[in-house]
Amino acid sequence: MFYFPFPHSENRIMSKAIPTVNQGNKNRKSKCIPVILAVGLFLAACTTQKDLLYLQGLNSAGEELPLQLPGDYLIQEQDILYIRLLSYNQEFNNLLDISETGTYAIGEGYLYINGYQVNDSGYVEVPFIGQVPVLGTTVEEARKRITRKAQEFIKDPVVIVKLLSFKFTILGEVKVPGTYQNYNKQLTVLEAIGMAGDITDLGNRKDILVVRRTPDSIRTFHLNLLNKDILASEAFFVQPNDVIYVKPTHNRIIRINIPTLSFIFASLSTVLLVLNYFK
After folding, report:
1. How many other C-beta atoms are found inside a 10 Å radius of the C-beta of residue 118?
2. Within a 10 A sphere around the Cβ of 36, how many other Cβ atoms?
3. How far is 1 from 12, CA to CA, in rounded Å?
4. What are 1-60's pLDDT values in tens digits?
5. 169 has which bridge partners?
6. Residue 138: which of 233, 215, 43 has the closest Cα?
7. How far is CA 43 from the centre of its chain?
């Protein structure tokens, strides 16, 4: 007995086989989706070396760059001044209890607590000579004013004035954020960041915000620490009461949400496997 293949039967067999192959391709593609998303998330969260290097573009052989020195700070309300008033009369020095020997024995903390604060009217109260207007003046101008006032009561007075309230605040993506005290006359933004332990790997070095208070306004500056041009910026030198904010990079947001995204990807993979199993 002879059997002849029927065309319609062969077509039915082929039609059943083709969907099986297509279904396998779909399964493989669906399994690749979570992997692709995970790889994309990993790449987005990476930080390159170029994003961490300060002052890029400097000549390796060395170069001379312009530097904009800060203007003299103008005294504001609530500033605290260290004022030492001396004369050639040792009895007068002992009366004020600010002799040179006593000063060296006293720590900086004591000098800060016992400094002279500028009141809201812009005056500082100095023992024995009274109030002296110092608001809006430089420290040197304040010293001269106090000296002229002291000459009315003391012969050949010697006056020393320093700014004790040179503090700044640094926030954001630094290792030790907080408020810091500076006892030097000048302080750069790089030194200020160094005092805070440097910027973390998730800090945006391309956009450092500096908020500066002036006698009549608030000014803001944006610094790119990766660019050597910040050396010529007006905000490169920190002023008293500056607030420095280091913004986070987009990687910071991604890394914070990695646990949530990982859970979503795992759930998605499970759902896809279950759906494929029942198809």
Report:
1. 22
2. 10
3. 24
4. 444 454 554 444 444 444 454 555 555 555 555 555 555 555 555 556 555 576 676 666
5. 179, 243
6. 215
7. 26
Q: What is the pLDDT of residue 235?
A: 92
Report field, pTM of the whole predicted structure over 0.85: no
- H-state helical runs in 82-220: 90-96, 100-105, 108-113, 139-150, 189-195
At 266, which helix (H) or strand (E)? helix 258-278
Distances (CA, A) of 102 to 67, 129, 195: 39, 21, 30
What is the residue whose two structure tokens read 């000459």? Answer: 151
d(CA 61, CA 218): 40
pLDDT of residue 168: 95
For the chain, strand residue ranges (E) read 80-86, 116-117, 123-126, 130-133, 158-163, 167-172, 178-181, 203-213, 218-223, 243-248
Collapsing DSSP states into helix, strand and coil, what is residue 151? coil
133 exposure class (CB count in 10 Å sphere: 0-12, 13-18, 19+): middle
Given a cut of 70, the residues of the chain with pLDDT beneath it are 1-52, 54-55, 57-62, 65, 93, 95-112, 251-266, 271-272, 275, 277-279
Q: For residues 151 and 108, is the Cβ–Cβ distance under 8 A? A: no
Closest CA to 269 of 5, 16, 27, 39: 27
Work out the number of other CB atoms within 10 angstroms of the CB of residue 252: 18
**pLDDT the model gives residue 142:** 97
243-248 and 203-213 beta bridge pairing: antiparallel
pLDDT of residue 279: 63
CA atoms of 223 and 240, how far apart (whole Å):
18
| 150 within 8 A of 129, measured Cβ to Cβ | yes
- Return the SS3 of 76: coil
Pairing mode of beta strands 80-86, 116-117: antiparallel
